[in-house]
Design brief:
Blueprint lengths: L5 H8 L4 E2 L5 H6 L11 H4 L1 H14 L3 E3 L7 H4 L8 H15 L5 E6 L17 H18 L3 E7 L2 H14 L4 E5 L2 E3 L4 E3 L6 H10 L4 E6 L3 H12 L6 E5 L4 E4 L2 E4 L3 H5 L2 H6 L4 E2 L7 H14 L2
Parallel strand pairs: 1-12, 2-3, 3-4, 4-5, 5-8, 8-9, 9-12
Antiparallel strand pairs: 6-7, 10-11
Helix pairs in contact: 4-6, 4-13, 6-7, 7-8, 9-10
The structure holds zinc ion (ZN).
The site of zinc ion has 4 residues, from loops.
């Protein structure tokens, strides 16, 4: 029997628009997470805080909420010397989101970069495709054990790492995989590229070829760039597309970082993002449930 996550794919293929969630980092910092501390550890030590963030997004109108497991690979957790808690922290993260989820909603297991360079780019200590796959597979299996409906492979910088994560999810379970990469806007060339130069069209094709069921962009810059990126992806595929950009660019004042776009300003770009062919929309850094509430209103206004 296929997992419930496949409903997400069926629904968007039937023309429905769905709402993803917003940022976690800023909300965890606001709740007291210290700079340099491990966010995934809070799935154990501050379960109530994490659960409340999930609930806040569901209440704001998210159809899909992701787990607090962005840095939950063993390679990443090893930076905090807690790689041996990989399974536990991912299972707990998945259960927290599951517990907060209404019956009709979905939970996506967040899988972010390891922060370790692929062999081809690293001067030393580079990671092989096999090592990437092993660390992502371990995380994916734990997230599935905790009850996620699908995976969100996200904020990926390197195509090798993204495709290894997709293959690992597919090897671990039969759940659907959303995969999104981080694009930089090159002002001089007026174009969006990954850190290593791939275009949105190339990214869409390579992530789909690796087995992703939904592809797109997240983080990076604001929704204005997301519109262009999604339009370019839509030009080369009929597959479901997802975008959850940042609330514009970060603005640093002293020690505090805020983001350019408030909820209303951010939501203003979403009709065009949907027109560009995006099927699932949310937000990333600098956003909170107020942003998602406005974005959900835009999506609801499109429903026939
Ligand atoms: Zn972000």
């Amino acid at each position: 029997m296929k997992g419930r996550g496949w409903e997400v794919i069926q629904r968007v293929k039937a023309g429905e628009l769905l709402v993803f969630d917003g940022g976690y980092g800023t909300m965890l910092f606001a709740a007291g997470l210290l700079n340099g501390a491990c966010p995934e550890l809070w799935n154990d030590t501050h379960a109530g805080v994490v659960g409340d963030i999930h609930k806040g997004y569901f209440d704001a109108g998210s159809d899909i909420v992701e787990t607090n497991t962005f840095g939950g690979t063993r390679l990443k957790l090893d930076e905090y010397k807690i790689g041996d808690r990989t399974r536990e922290l991912n299972v707990k993260g998945a259960r927290l989101a599951r517990q907060a989820a209404p019956a009709h909603a979905y939970v996506a297991g967040s899988i972010g970069p390891t922060s370790r360079l692929p062999l081809d780019y690293a001067l030393d200590n580079g990671v092989t495709d096999e090592d990437y796959e092993a660390t992502f597979r371990e995380q994916a299996e734990a997230l599935a054990e905790g009850g996620v409906d699908l995976f969100a492979v996200e904020t990926m910088m390197f195509p090798q790492e993204a495709t290894a994560a997709i293959r690992a999810c597919k090897a671990a379970t039969d759940l659907p995989v959303m995969a999104t990469m981080f694009f930089q806007y090159e002002e001089g060339n007026d174009r969006d590229r990954t850190m290593w130069g791939e275009s949105p069209a190339e990214v869409a094709k390579s992530l789909l070829a690796a087995g992703a069921d939904v592809v797109g962009m997240n983080c990076g810059r604001g929704p204005d760039r997301a519109i262009t990126i999604i339009r370019e992806m839509r030009g080369v595929t009929d597959a479901p597309l997802v975008a959850y950009p940042n609330a514009g660019l970060p603005v640093t004042k002293g020690d505090t970082v805020t983001y350019e776009l408030g909820p209303d300003e951010m939501a203003r770009d979403y009709p065009a993002l949907l027109d560009a062919g995006c099927n699932i929309v949310g937000a990333c850094c600098g956003s909170d449930p107020r942003h998602i509430q406005r974005i959900a209103e835009v999506v609801r206004s499109r429903k026939k």
